[in-house]
Amino acid sequence: MTEARLAEDYQTRLVPLEQRTTPDGVHHVLREAILTGVYPPGSQLREARISSELGISRAPLREAFSRLMEEGLVERIAYRGAFVSQISPKTIEEIAVLRYLVEPYAAEQTAARLGKKLTREVKKRVRALRIAADRGDIAASIDAHLEFHRFFYQHCGNVLLAEQWATWETRLRLFLSVDHRSHENLEELASAHEYLASLIEEGHMERFREELAHHVHKAPGAALQD
Fold first, then answer.
1. pLDDT, tens digit, for every residue of 171-193?
2. At 77, is the secondary structure helix, strand, or coil?
3. Nearest Cα to Cα of residue 226 among 159, 121, 146
4. DSSP assignment, residue 16?
């Protein structure tokens, strides 16, 4: 389907906002619309249409666009306008291969650094994922899902790994915005992460390391789950 066709196929209208809504509020609405598929990858974000639907001026809308571009969710093409970014299956596959190699190491190093604090911190992140899943909140589940994995990169003590995760996260977020919608519910996703957390709590770090490697590399070439 072409970008032009995508732009004409929207069936869902955005709910109007109050005129005094801040750019933060506009950013939140548009970000959620992208992550929940109201605006699918490759679709054009037409300023006139969106500002009309939201009932706001274009100034806060353009500021929201700028923030979404910084996050990698939106790209602006010269003389054409703003579009929801796209991500190829090949790129996701390549990320999965690298995560398979380095994420268990990052988790292992995080465990060594945090000691007894690890269980509490992991359970906190899994709880956020469970709450989002129970609510059927796709945008929140994507945030919680990525936060679970980001945690190991940020606390492993390796600056380069933390920086590497940052380059992957936007691409993964775009992929998950489609992948999470393919599930009738998010129960399986939450349960998988609860199982990983239980291995940490029980002290089975070697088993956790093996399961995590499997978890991030289930089927990278097809319907990658993580």
1. 888 888 777 665 557 888 899 99
2. strand
3. 146
4. P
